[in-house]
Amino acid sequence: MNDQQKTEIEAAAFRRLLSHLDNNKDVQNIDLMILADFCRNCLAKWYSAEAKERGIEVDYEAARVAVYGMPYSEWKENYQAKATPEQLAAFEAKQASKK
């Protein structure tokens, strides 16, 4: 596999991840943070940072649109549930275990 093929495969896998997340909106960001230590917002931050590294300006909100497929405020209003006490406790425990 050459570098171009590797890049194309990685890009396709990223698009597939975004599609998978889009098709599973019931999976909340806090769930992702608890289980995998990243969420959709992390992907947006990484997207923006990688663009900047290449001299391309993609601000955080534009990166969120790329990840969420819509403005974050719209996604949050339509799909984000309030975190349960159990989720918050699990998240806090995860954060404490990193220290």
Descriptive overview:
The protein is mostly helical and about 100 residues long. It has one domain: SMc04008-like fold. Helix content is about 75%, strand content about 0%. The chain has six helices and no strands. The radius of gyration is 15 Å and the shape is globular. The protein starts with a helix and ends with a helix. The model has no long low-confidence stretch (mean pLDDT about 95).
Question: How many distinct beta strands?
Answer: 0
Question: What share of the residues lie within helices?
Answer: over 70%
Q: What sequence of helices (H) and strands (E) makes up the elements? A: HHHHHH
Into how many domains do the coordinates divide? 1
Tell me the β content.
Answer: under 5%
Low-confidence stretches: none
CATH superfamily: SMc04008-like
Q: What separation lies between the terminal Cα atoms?
A: 40 Å
**What's the multimeric state?**
single chain
Summarize the main sheet. Answer: none
Query: Can you give the mean pLDDT?
Result: 95
Mass-distribution shape: globular
Number of helices: 6
CATH architecture field: Orthogonal Bundle
The top level CATH class name: Mainly Alpha
How does the helix and strand content classify structurally?
mainly alpha
What CATH calls the topology is: SMc04008-like fold
Radius of gyration, CA atoms, in whole angstroms? 15 Å
